[in-house]
Amino acid sequence: MLSEFQKTLLQSVKAFQSTQLVKNKYENVLQHLDSGIILFDSEGVLTFVNVEMAKLMELPRQSLIGCNLLQMLRHPHLSRYLKRKVIRIYRETFLYGKKFHELVDEYGRNWLITITYGDQMDGDFLLSVKDVSDYKRIEQTAYHNDKLAMLGKISAAIAHEIRNPLTSIRGFIQLLRPHLIQLGRDEYARIILAEIDRANDIIHEFLNSSKPSAPLKSVIDIPTLLGEVVLLTESEALMKNCEIVLSLPEDSSMTVSIDTKQIKQVLLNIIKNAMEAIEEMDAEHRGMIDISAHSEGELVYITIRDNGNGMDQNLMNRLFDPFFTTKEKGTGLGLSVSYRIIKNHRGHISVDSTKGIGTVFEITLPMVDSKSAVVGASQ
Ligand SMILES: Nc1ncnc2c1ncn2[C@@H]1O[C@H](COP(=O)(O)OP(=O)(O)OP(=O)(O)O)[C@@H](O)[C@H]1O
Ligand SMILES: [Mg+2]
Question: Which stretches make up the Histidine kinase domain (predicted)?
Fold first, then answer.
């Protein structure tokens, strides 16, 4: 039988062991936290440093335990960069009572340093360091997007307002035209009117592209759509010495639910670009624009291939950027608007090109079941 004393001793040992277990558990958690942690006691002696902190300071943990701040600063392996930062944090904490410090290191990473002391710490000083680069990046992206959205709204408002004075100028130039003709300066009026029309076109396209217009969908067969587009462009192509060839697979159903006007605009933009690329070649060059379509799985692929002047990689990278143009009279909005339209239709647009040989544009659109689509369209 155990005496009363032995029982009490056994209980105390058990209690000590369980406290020790809990302590080890928490210490283990602190050791492997993804933030750096360092603890100074009320005498200013470093009593705890976790793995992450030692890694950040590039010093062995054991060489830090038991040091005071001065000894730590004199550590032979502490980098000069860190020494300067530690002194700065010390000054700002004790002179200005600052508890949060933000640092950007030599690799551009952002760090948040938090100091906790006072009653809640029983005289100890806890310093934690956290890598907040990802949060910073998100914050900056959000700020950038906000700025872009704001800029977009302002530009759209300005563009809209510029149209009114342009209309007045256009009207007055037309009134002045007979006088200019008398002076033998009809050419001036013609140029002014053409330039005003160009400015209006740019504004019109800009407003169209900045408006996130939702597609007004209806069901159509791709061969019908392509046939209509070819009909619209054929005569202009002929004048520019190029031929448009439409190749479609026989008896294949390719039904899509699209905003026909918008998708037509995309196809016309690409064909217009193709014709302009062909014009860049020498006069004897016989232009060819091949348009084809096929379906695969649930997608329809429309390909527009030209043998125009082509593009290098550099140009291709900027192709869909708004206002990017290599043409004297281009607005650089054709493809950026097209890109948006295709994206709004949950489709995809890609390009492949070789300088001096030609370019291929490929548009992918999701198909709809032709039978259920007709029912859907008539509802
Ligand atoms: N088929 C093509 N072949 C060669 N270059 C092309 C082709 N399509 C587009 N590009 C290049 O991409 C640029 C951007 O085209 P985009 O249609 O966006 O504007 P743009 O044609 O210059 O002007 P806009 O369409 O407003 O008249 C063109 O200036 C041209 O350099
Ligand atoms: Mg264009």
Answer: 157-369
